[in-house]
Amino acid sequence: MKEKLLAGFREVFKTEADNVYFAPGRVNLIGEHTDYNGGYVFPCALNIGTYLAVKKRTDKKCHFYSENFAHLGIIEVDLDNFNYYVKDDWANYPKGCIREVQKLGNELGYGLDLYYYGNIPNGAGLSSSASIELVTLVMLNEEYGLNIDRIELVKMGQRAENQFVGVNCGIMDQFAIGMGKANHAILLDTGNLKYQYAPLNIEGYSLVVTNTNKRRGLADSKYNERRAECETALEILKQYKDINALCELSLAEFETLSDKIQAEVIRKRARHAISENERTILAKKALDEGNLAEFGRLMNQSHVSLRDDYEVTGKELDTLASLAWAQEGVIGSRMTGAGFGGCTISIVKNECIAAFKENVEREYEKTIGYKPTFYVVLVGDGAKKL
Ligand code: GLA
Fold first, then answer.
1. Which of 28, 32, 35, 279 to mutate to test the pocket of ligand 1 (most atoms within 8 A of CB)?
2. Residue 171 CA, closest ligand 1 atom number
């Protein structure tokens, strides 16, 4: 892959790149929509992601090119004077990262030629945007010798997305991509950023990601809306309990207070976040104990809660999950990521994967009208220089 990037760079910029970097995509096993509620998440980094070849320039311009958006050509950015522009499209993510580096008081004395290529399916909920952010930040850190520590880079990625791009995401994606470890999932407490690696002992089984192939459309505005609903719930519950985040409550504590929330929709949103947080802790424990059946049961429950209480699934994801639940050799299956389209994650017995794909594809197409796409994914390392 490194060779491919170097060749692509040469063709576009007519010169040789200095270095190549990689940042993975991520998939979340369980703990969905908890990361902006101070709860646990349990994601892992994938072996697919974003590659970046770079060369220093002598002026103060950055030239961005992506093989995935070749029709946009080279996007030029002046390091001394740039802003968010809709026309800059994907390049707004790396621009937001540069802005974060500058905000720390770093003077970037020269520009860069940058050639990106990603093999994460776009808009599938596998965090192609956080992957672009982290590959950019790890590169900037190295190319300009900034010595910023990894967790700080992760936070900068999140801020770039919140403040420059305008999506109010939590920290999960950037954390999983920045801190990932091959064959391990990460249990992260988003309330205090304490984390532990959990070996992914699923011998004989694989992680199968299935893409609904639904266009995500309103996903970002719906995402911000759910976040606001959780904030409303928190404001109400704070009057009765000294908490800073919804996931500081146990489900039992929440049940005693839930009737203080008048609006049913707000009550359901809070119940999802809090119940999902408990499921995530239980799931990590089940994995440690090698109890895959329990892990799968919790995944399925997570989907039901995201469907009924959080209402972020939709017909495509619900169809995929129900079909997966009915297949032989499936331990568990649920939507993963923000929802509103995107992918499911299923744990499937290796001998059963072929039949799983065939059956799910056939039945999904009958119901939805087009085919899903399957990816048997491997769990890889976090962002790095190649
Ligand atoms: C998106 C966001 C994450 C997280 C998930 C839902 O992926 O970027 O921060 O909130 O949705 O769990």
1. 35
2. 9
CA angle 305, 30, 100 (to 5 degrees): 110
Q: Is the alpha carbon torsion for 352, 360, 46, 55 positive or negative?
A: positive
How far does residue 171's CA lie from ligand 1's centre (Å)?
Answer: 8
Running DSSP on this structure, what letter comes out for residue 38? Answer: T
pLDDT class of 10 with cuts at 50, 70, 90: very high
Instruction: Indicate whether 333 pLDDT > 90.
Output: yes
Token match 């407490």: residue?
Answer: 189
Q: One of 35, 88, 113, 173 is an active-site residue; which one?
A: 173
According to the model, what pLDDT value does residue 217 have?
62
What's the average model confidence in pLDDT over 40-66? Answer: 97
Q: Atom 9 of ligand 1 has which residue's CA nearest to it?
A: 170
- In DSSP terms, 332 is beta-bridged to 347
Helices in the chain by DSSP H: which ranges?
Answer: 2-13, 92-103, 128-143, 150-159, 172-179, 219-238, 251-257, 264-288, 292-308, 315-325, 353-368
**pLDDT, tens digit (0-9, with 9 covering 90-100), for 288-326:** 999 999 999 999 999 999 999 999 999 999 999 999 999
d(CA 282, CA 300): 13
Percent of the chain with pLDDT strictly greater than 70: 99
Q: Is 173 a catalytic residue?
A: yes
Ligand 1 centroid to 31 CA: how many Å? 10
Q: Which residue has the tokens 């985040």?
A: 245
> CA 245, CA 270: separation in Å to the nearest integer?
10
Cα 110 to averaged position of ligand 1 atoms, centre (Å)? 34
Query: For 209-235, how does the pLDDT look when each residue is reduced to its tens digit (9 = 90+)?
Result: 999 999 766 567 788 899 999 999 999
| Ligand 1 binding pocket, CB closer than 6 Å | 32-33, 35-36, 169-170, 172-173, 337-338
**3-class secondary-structure state, position 40:** strand
Q: Is the pTM of this model over 0.85?
A: yes
